[in-house]
Design a protein that fits this description.
The complex is a heterodimer of chains A (about 450) and B (about 550). Chain A is about 15% helix and about 45% strand. By secondary structure, chain A is an alpha+beta fold. Chain A folds into two domains: about 1-55 and about 110-445, membrane protein fhac: a member of the omp85/tpsb transporter family (Porin, Beta Barrel); about 65-100, no CATH class. In chain A, the strands form two sheets. A 16-stranded antiparallel beta sheet of chain A has the order 1-2-3-4-5-6-7-8-9-10-11-14-15-16-17-18. A two-stranded antiparallel ribbon of chain A has the order 12-13. Chain A starts with a helix and ends in a 5-residue tail after the last strand. Classes of the chains: A alpha+beta (about 450), B alpha+beta (about 550).
């Protein structure tokens, strides 16, 4: 689900186009008129710009020598102001030369090229295989196969051994710029995903780990029929989930559970996953906004060709941003409800159940901390503008999982609170660092996307 | 000009003060170059913002403290009478475009507003810019108005006309291309045009209001920088940060809210004049004026640089409880004007998006010079210029003009009084006569006394010999007896005013015996090497 959310963000980013801080307004127009590649993405450029700016702020002065004033040649003493100036101009002629950019400027020209529509062929890739993988490093390479369409081949690896390799074809300007198509194929492996048992009343000490790997192939079409606000999305994915014993310092899941007590344990499930979304989105950008909101509902159908683990899931999302004091403050609210329904005679494997916990939901808890058939998450943030590129936020998260849909209410919620710093551009949040406190301790969150 | 003055040279030449900066050399080797915009932004934000002003006098001024005409600047308002008709015509010397047919020939290559390059029915090339839907008439109106104002202020401007673009009367040149994200240029399609038109304000009849800028003559060389000189232009001697008209953009920019002063909004063109190639320098894009560079929620623009440390730290450590002035100022917002006001605005705390080096080098004498030009705009001239914007809402037009008038008065009251405001000294048989620009501008009351210290001046050795002192309660002071019958005299003129103690610092005027009378050949408001005053220095936000 989170992978889907991450992909949703990426797709929306591509649909909307991209950014940079410097050409905010130009790109704002581009945002609505073009679908720039998601790989010339904000995170890449902003990180690069931050590094270069930091270097430049100390080195540029040295790198850009002040213009040398041409010393007047000691020729005949002029007898008029006109003659004096003309002598000095004549004296400059032998020293004439074309403008020579310094090293810093030459470096920045590459950034200009990217911002003006060029291509960043090689790019860093920080999305890991699955939430909870830890620090991630990755790289991708883009090849354009048309004016706007491209193929991005990329891979990432985390400190905990999560692996992800995939290739994605993006067509960002279908149907007169109303549609965005992603065709994705790849493989990933998460080696130590946490499982604490079902329900909210589980203990931190109950943690077990499991591993899964998954080859996948999908196609996702996102449409904005009116080019703004109304969003429709549909897609299909063919994949096989293979759950295996987990790695890491916690017990493996099969040491505490059996297939009889935990549906899907040790299973290999081949899914045809189809989905459809209807949404209205009036934010300035899903990656960063100070106003507007989003309402959406998504129906997922997971068809197991062996008719053992098929199920359906509904996901409802509501987001609202309330600007205060001319957007120097923003009160932001997020609500999400997920409900999963098993198909007749089938079960929902534990690793596909809705969950809360992690850097995008209950930030004071570890990833996938609570799992069950239903989940509810509510979040509130008080965002404080520091400047155009930096904001801080106090946040509060609460959520739970339930076995029954009727229990989806606001009682018995697990909660956390915290404070964070976000580096952002006009349309994206490339770096989010947060410290969250929950009854289970402190959590430090590093993310390359908005919280919601 | 002050530039390159040799110590062996006399202080004044027979042709001083010069009225025009000569361009004696052929500049045909000047080559096109576009500076990296990210570099320009970075340098301005992180280097210039900490730039310590040199305190040097502007180097392109003549000996009477004025800016001579040049390929950069032409003296207009404040130097000679400008009628409203002349102002409304501005830089426009040719015919407006014929909008009965547009042929799109390429994408728009500069500026933030959406647009493209097209030829009109007469086959002439124009750069077309549209209005964003939330600022209908605003972006185009700002260009139309600001080009008139900056032309009158003396800057080279692009010929610009408000006109219409009718998609039904337009076509795309088969050779027109656009650069794609892939890096390749492919044919400009109807969908490309639609992509632009979908994002701009449309008239009820399906046409679009556009501002059409005529293609500049000559070979386009790219923008000029606000620091250094062009190494490929032998006539370009004065470092740009020491050109008074570029420093003065800080005052003119504050007046008009020209927030986007980046180098990319300027342009150099290689033209032929009197059989010789010279580089002509334009302020190419002055459309980021009034409230038009503010996007819908960019409230801090014109109050803070894109990045500025102190207000950032303040918000960080107070969690935003310490309000910045842009959070409380009242705006009367018209779509065609944007966020533009004159009550709280202060030119000393006004901020462009990024500070240029010339902006940081502004001295009080530069600001005084600029303020006199702003003050030379009459109410009628301002209203005539604003009328060029062809706003459909008369209230918006009136509001914009009213705010410009209000801001003009603030500029006068701040900068004309910050230094000794004596101007236009004349020496004749009636004695020494001059004007007080602050008093004449209605922003100050006359001082108690004026004092003149008379000196004989040796032009060869640049030394003075005291003669005597005379005083007066008016702007005419008797000359002492015994003035030399030839050569030069220097006069230090100061004023005593309780309210303006800076007026005690004298200005120095030099007169040369010329036939039967005296000719003003030199004038110095502030000496060389002084630090920029508190008025000119960047102030902390309010």
């Amino acid at each position: 689900m989170l992978r889907r959310a991450g992909r949703l963000w990426q797709i929306r980013k591509a649909v909307y186009g991209t950014f940079t801080d410097r050409f905010e307004r130009r790109l704002r127009f581009k945002r609505q008129s073009e679908g720039w590649s998601s790989v010339s993405a904000f995170g890449v450029l902003t990180r690069f710009a931050m590094v270069v700016l930091a270097v430049a702020s100390t080195n540029v002065a040295a790198a850009q020598p002040p213009p040398a004033e041409e010393s007047p040649q000691q020729t005949a003493q002029p007898t008029s102001r006109q003659a004096e100036i003309e002598q000095q101009q004549a004296a400059k002629v032998p020293t004439e030369h074309p403008y020579v950019p310094n090293t810093a400027e030459r470096l920045f020209r590459h950034v200009d090229t990217i911002l003006e529509g060029g291509t960043l062929a090689w790019h860093p890739f920080f999305e890991n295989a699955y939430s909870g993988g830890g620090f991630t490093l990755g790289v991708g390479h883009v090849n354009y196969v048309g004016a706007y369409n491209y193929i991005d081949v990329r891979g990432s690896y985390t400190v905990t051994g999560y692996k992800r390799v995939e290739a994605e074809f993006i067509a960002p300007r279908l149907f007169n710029r109303r549609g965005h198509l992603s065709v994705l194929g790849g493989w990933r492996e998460a080696t130590q995903v946490g499982f604490y048992g079902l329900g909210t009343n589980t203990a931190k000490e109950d943690r077990t780990n499991y591993l899964f790997n998954q080859p996948y192939a999908s196609a996702l079409l996102t449409m904005f029929p009116t080019r703004r606000v109304l969003m429709l999305r549909g897609g299909a994915e063919f994949s096989r989930w293979s759950q295996e014993p987990g790695e890491g310092s916690f017990p493996s899941v099969e040491t505490k559970y059996t297939p009889a007590t935990l549906p899907g344990l040790g299973a290999q499930v081949t899914y045809l996953h189809t989905q459809g979304t209807v949404g209205v989105d009036w934010r300035t950008s899903p990656g960063y906004t100070r106003r507007g909101g989003f309402l959406g509902a998504t129906l997922h159908d997971y068809h197991d060709r062996d008719a053992a683990f098929g199920f359906q899931m509904m996901e409802y999302t509501a987001i609202e941003h309330v600007p205060i004091l001319r957007e120097a403050w923003v009160l932001a609210f997020h609500g999400r409800v997920q409900t999963a329904f098993e198909k007749d005679g089938q079960q929902i494997p534990f690793f596909m159940l809705p969950a809360v916990g992690g850097g995008s939901s209950l930030r004071g808890y570890s990833s996938w901390r609570f799992r069950d058939r239903n989940s509810i998450l509510v979040q509130a943030e008080w965002r404080i503008m520091v400047n155009r590129y930096l904001e801080t936020a106090f946040f509060y998260d609460a959520g739970k999982v339930t076995a029954r849909t009727s229990d989806l209410d606001l009682s018995g919620l697990k909660s956390d609170f915290g404070f964070g710093v976000r580096f952002h551009g006009p349309f994206a949040t490339p770096l989010r660092v947060e410290l969250a406190k929950s009854p289970e301790g402190l959590s430090l969150v590093f993310a390359s996307s908005a919280s919601f | 000009m002050v530039v390159g003055a040799s110590t062996q040279s006399p202080r004044f030449y027979p042709d001083d003060p010069i009225a025009r900066e000569p361009e004696s050399q052929d500049a045909s080797k000047a080559a096109p170059y576009d500076q990296s915009q990210i570099y320009d932004l970075t340098y301005n934000l992180f280097v210039n913002s900490g730039h310590k002003a040199s305190g040097l006098r502007a180097k392109n001024i003549n000996t009477i403290d004025e800016v001579p005409d040049s390929s950069w600047f032409t003296n207009r308002v404040g130097t000679r009478p400008i009628t409203s008709e002349e102002l409304v015509r501005g830089a426009n010397v040719g015919a407006p475009p014929d909008p009965s047919k547009w042929v799109l020939i390429r994408e728009k290559t500069t500026g933030a507003h959406p647009g493209f390059t097209a030829t009109d029915a007469g086959g002439e090339t124009w750069f077309l810019e549209f209005d964003p839907p939330y600022f209908a008439q605003g972006a185009t109106g700002a260009v139309a108005i600001a080009t008139k104002i900056f032309w009158a202020l003396g800057y080279n401007q692009v010929e610009s006309f408000l006109t219409t673009f009718d998609p039904k009367k337009s076509s795309i040149d088969p050779k027109a291309t656009v650069r794609r994200p892939s890096g390749k240029r492919t044919r400009f399609s109807q969908d490309d045009m639609n992509a632009i038109l979908e994002t701009v304000a449309r008239n009820p009849d399906g046409t679009y209001r556009v501002i059409a800028g005529r293609q500049l003559p000559g070979k386009i060389l790219g923008g000029f920088q606000y620091i250094g000189t062009r190494p490929d232009d032998p006539n370009d001697l004065v470092p740009h940060e020491h050109r008074r008209e570029l420093r003065a953009l800080r005052v003119f920019g504050a007046w008009t809210n020209l927030t986007d002063m980046k180098a990319a909004n300027t342009i150099d063109s290689l033209i032929t004049e009197n059989g010789k190639s010279i580089v002509k320098h334009y302020l190419q894009d002055v459309g980021s004026t009034f409230g038009m560079c503010n996007d819908l929620h960019e409230w801090d623009l014109s109050w803070e640089y894109f990045y500025e440390g102190p207000p950032s730290w303040k918000r960080l450590f107070t969690f935003g409880f310490a309000l910045s002035p842009w959070q409380t100022v009242d705006y009367v917002e018209y779509p065609s004007v944007g966020k533009f006001e004159g009550k709280v605005w202060d030119p000393r705390t006004w901020r462009p998006q990024t500070p240029t080096t010339a902006y940081m080098e502004l001295r009080d004498d530069d600001a005084f010079w600029a303020a006199r030009r702003v003050g030379a705009f009459t109410d009628d001239m301002i209203r005539a210029a604003v009328h060029v914007g062809e706003f459909s809402d008369p209230a918006a037009e009136k509001y914009l003009a009213d705010v410009l008038i209000q801001r003009r008065e603030k500029i006068k009251s701040i900068y004309l009084t910050a230094v000794n405001p004596i101007v236009n000294p004349r020496l004749d048989t009636a004695g020494l006569t001059f004007e007080n620009a602050a008093v004449a501008g209605g922003v100050a009351e006359g001082p108690v006394t004026y004092r003149a210290s008379w000196m004989r001046f040796d032009n060869a050795t640049n030394t003075t010999t005291p003669l005597s002192e005379t005083t007066s309660a008016t702007t005419t002071i008797a000359a002492p007896g015994g003035l030399p019958s030839s050569g030069l005299v220097a006069v230090d003129i100061s004023a005593t005013s309780d309210k303006y103690p800076t007026w005690k610092k004298p200005v120095r005027a030099f007169f040369r015996r010329d036939g039967g009378g005296w000719k003003l050949v030199g004038f110095e408001r502030l000496p060389e090497g002084g630090s920029p005053s508190a008025e000119a220095r960047p102030s902390k936000p309010l």
